[in-house]
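Students often ask why we bother predicting the structure of a whole assembly rather than each chain alone. The short answer is interfaces. A chain on its own may look different once its partners are present, and contacts between molecules only exist in the joint model. In this exercise we take two input lines together and write out one structure for the complete complex. Read the inputs first and try to guess which parts will touch.
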Amino acid sequence: MPADGRARVVIEGIAPQVDGGRFAIKRVAGDRIEVEADCFADGHDTLACRLRHRREDDAKWGETAMVAIGNDRWRGEFAVPDIGRYRYTIAAWVDAFLSWRHDFERRVDADDLRVAAQVGAEIVANAARRARGDDRKRLLEWARRLAATADMDALRELALDEAAAALAQRYPDRRFETKYPVEFPVVVDRRLAAFSSWYEFFPRSASPYEGVHGTFVDAEARLPYVAGMGFDVVYLPPIHPIGRVRRKGRNNTLVAEPDDVGSPWAIGAAEGGHKALHPELGTFDEFARFVARARALGIEVALDVAFQCAPDHPYVDAHPEWFRHRPDGSVQYAENPPKKYQDIYPFSFESDEWRALWEELHDVFAFWAGHGIRIFRVDNPHTKPFPFWEWAIARLKREHPDVILLSEAFTRPKVMHRLAKLGFTQSYTYFTWRNTKRELTEYFTELTQGPGREYFRPNCWPNTPDILPEALQIGGRGAFMARLILAATLCGNYGIYGPAFELLEHVPREPGSEEYLNSEKYELRHWDLERGDSLAPFIARVNAARRDNAALSHDGSLTFVPTDNDEILCYARVDATRANAIIVAVNLDPHHVQSGWVSLDLGELGLDADQPFQVHDLLTDARYAWHGSRNFVMLDPARVPAHLFRVRRQMRDEHDFVYFE
Amino acid sequence: MPADGRARVVIEGIAPQVDGGRFAIKRVAGDRIEVEADCFADGHDTLACRLRHRREDDAKWGETAMVAIGNDRWRGEFAVPDIGRYRYTIAAWVDAFLSWRHDFERRVDADDLRVAAQVGAEIVANAARRARGDDRKRLLEWARRLAATADMDALRELALDEAAAALAQRYPDRRFETKYPVEFPVVVDRRLAAFSSWYEFFPRSASPYEGVHGTFVDAEARLPYVAGMGFDVVYLPPIHPIGRVRRKGRNNTLVAEPDDVGSPWAIGAAEGGHKALHPELGTFDEFARFVARARALGIEVALDVAFQCAPDHPYVDAHPEWFRHRPDGSVQYAENPPKKYQDIYPFSFESDEWRALWEELHDVFAFWAGHGIRIFRVDNPHTKPFPFWEWAIARLKREHPDVILLSEAFTRPKVMHRLAKLGFTQSYTYFTWRNTKRELTEYFTELTQGPGREYFRPNCWPNTPDILPEALQIGGRGAFMARLILAATLCGNYGIYGPAFELLEHVPREPGSEEYLNSEKYELRHWDLERGDSLAPFIARVNAARRDNAALSHDGSLTFVPTDNDEILCYARVDATRANAIIVAVNLDPHHVQSGWVSLDLGELGLDADQPFQVHDLLTDARYAWHGSRNFVMLDPARVPAHLFRVRRQMRDEHDFVYFE
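Now the answer. The structure tokens for the assembled complex follow.
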């Protein structure tokens, strides 16, 4: 038998939640969290349901009443004003007072009313016993009058008095309440975790002089250019000393020339490892100035954390127990037979010394956090054990709740999702390879409506230093613009690898490859940022639209709009207050002009079917008068392959002139 | 930090399961249970996954290997040969031997192979340490040869030897295995739990003489008639003494005449309560003979358990603490204001003496189980607390694992589902009110494919003593036939309330009511079973088809077949071995002949698109030659409103004559 079989309420089907509360849902500071659950009991008694919530570091629960929304489903909400961790759960009970009141309203028979008044007097007297002071006195008085009133009309009015009912409800009988046995965790991040635009560049290619190794000072000089495009995160590939042993040459050749600079991801050399700066980039002071200058421009610096070592990384000698050794005594390099990566030593997480390894890797994050860095792009997290990330991220976020970690796991879907569940703030996505209308519609429907929406925050990249997708290789300028628009308007977080992106770099190392020819991963590049065909002004307009339109932020809705042309992808976004509405139409064909009709859901956009409205293209400043659901678009990839429309609803003033808001 | 951070495998997304293992999935003895899970680790190492399973009363786990089926999903199965409770869970680990072998197959470089052979020798030697006897010797010998073989071809052959690999896999290194933390329960019932046909009748109306109270002896005489229709469960409304205080009269009138027999659900009088027999029905010996005679005819007797009391039930005096009392000292009758049911006293489950009440109610089941009863139809379980049912059913099934409980909860969907989750074997459904093609398609798709399929076993009733649905009031004989066919062929369990059903009883107490006129609930009825229009022969044919065709049993598939006529519902069912296929087409319009084209999925039916096939109507014995996917049907409600086709595949013998299997 249960401890008390009189706890009659069932609570189940609580949403949101991730894996029964095993993992946290993610929100940003200032959000309100809406929670629903199925709550019901036997019979037809009336329930009371409470949403319980607290900060994880505060033992005291707050409670808000939940309301029934039909089919035994209840809904409540609570606010998460600050970053950190919260918890919520639900309690519910069969409420004797509410049941009595509900029945009383429906009684017709005078004898019944009289008996019911006696029953009610007892219930209210019990509530009085739980009250103190004036409340107690008022409840006792109400109970006395319920028992004593003889006139039926007076009794009915007395029994159903709203103020008295509200008072009684403050002292419910919760002896037999059901408490849901799980507390559901919430991670609350700052807004940038959900809405950010990233710009990745190699500081060593930032020198104004061709062939000269760039420095933090050069990178600092590049920042106004990046800010001018409207990005708010600058992400640098690893800035540590680069291994010399088995260094790769240009275009990933096996043998480096003496002047080859090597891959920044081959971390560690005589000068130091993950906590050192590459000497040619500059000093910690110069790095600090770079970070400070970025901050002054409204940009936060993100660093790359790649847990792997060049053969000459100091860890290899100092901690041989953190690596696997081959029978010949050599350290096991990375491999996926028949492929070998002899310039990279992975850590062995099955080492007996795994605890010390975990501590050291955590210390790498902590070290850079100590230098003011709060955003980390984590390289290949899917090749390190999941329990390590869960532990490391939890610890790091306890120490620095404002930390943001982007998971660079271009891998199988379930692995990507697990990393997001266990704590990564943002995740790279398959966007990079989703090109057709069907692919994009299905993928973003899954991202915004699938279970991952509670924990998987996508960050969409049209390109990276590792990936020059086929669409950009063959689609020309129109494809670059379309892919940027899609990334920036389908997704709260997006980023580009520049200047390769805005300068339309599109030649692969060889046909069929996704690697860049003359990739910056293996050599210095010199970029002509002033080129007339640069997409920088276009990117600036897109980022300005993101900044100025709440509909494009992380909490704007996303609905795909039917079109009669498979090359035209159209979608509508509306902000949470429904004050701002955006319609995006993109020509996915980079080679031909495409036109077609889009079929809007006017109600969703807050529009009246009978009134014309204006759509204002934020890319070209053009304005169109539209009317009704079906409207025509024609998009030329040789000019601008997309419309980014802000909907301007018609407004009339007191003189009946037509304005648009 | 976790206890061991080296347990790298993630296990999640286990199916089947109910609410994370909080409740059991349901199966029948002899089933094989297929279990799937997402299992993956960091990196690209090879995993080993094991499905672990045991009887709940046997501490020892069995293990079967799971196989990868793509997208990190693994599948395994185990058998549940006997009734009772089982458990299953999953264990998985990164398998050093399998990873080594997987990599070895892909290596090309001779140096690599040599080093890999050394690594493999060490892994195999470690396996040998876990082995004993001959196995150990053979593994050590294999390890020695792996280390010593110089010739590359010989080494490759040796390393990839299948028999040696199988031996090594018997001694895996499971130190870092992940065990899923939940054991998922299974309730295994006998086959009748999932596949049964019920016939409900009032024994008191079974007398051969009009106006005479029927007895168990009369009911016994009725059994061959019931068996002749092919039913395997006979369900009797309550057979206990009926209260005299505030007894209801004919047609549910408030005041009974002296000769009114009262409702069998108003349980308890001076002669006794839930453990007594109504004196006019007969003695325990006569009851036992009735049960034995039924068994001899292949029929099991189900009793009604209705936990409520007439005012003169002995409990009311003996255990006043089990009832709620009004301020005037009277016992609180059942009510749902403004409705009152003064002839019924509900138990108060919030009583301080709830433990004793629970014990007594359990004893009611145990009492009848002691009289050989193993099937109970439970009246209104949704008006008693869920924790009571969970406890009572678990206890009863521990004592009598072959018990079957049918939940008579015609109530809100989540309440019905909760009762099924917490242990009821079968559940009444909304079938009774689902009439249109869309309603039936949606409802049975939900029942067979929704989450409830793991725990909610529907039992479909075209009528009950409480419910004469509108479709039967107005649809005539055709509607009765159609509703029976639907219940019997859409659902593993179904039942009718007879002889009202087969004798086409269709007049409501008043227009708009679903209550029968002159309902047997309040009076004796005399039925002319020999009437020429009786549906008994038709019902016998339908039940024979159920018995003879595995496709119609509980584990036959159900697929709705598109038709071009909204009044024609068509569906196909195929048994688990795919040897038996049934196509049902029903005219839902009881008034008009309807015809149309059905579009079969031939592959699903095991048919060749190029070969004609025969469909054999088991209702009329007519045979039709069909060909291809689209075929024509025409159904006349004035004759038979349905086809119940068995598909006869064409076979040719050695002389090339055409036969049908």
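Check your guess against this: Residues 431 and 580 of chain B are 26 Å apart (CA to CA).
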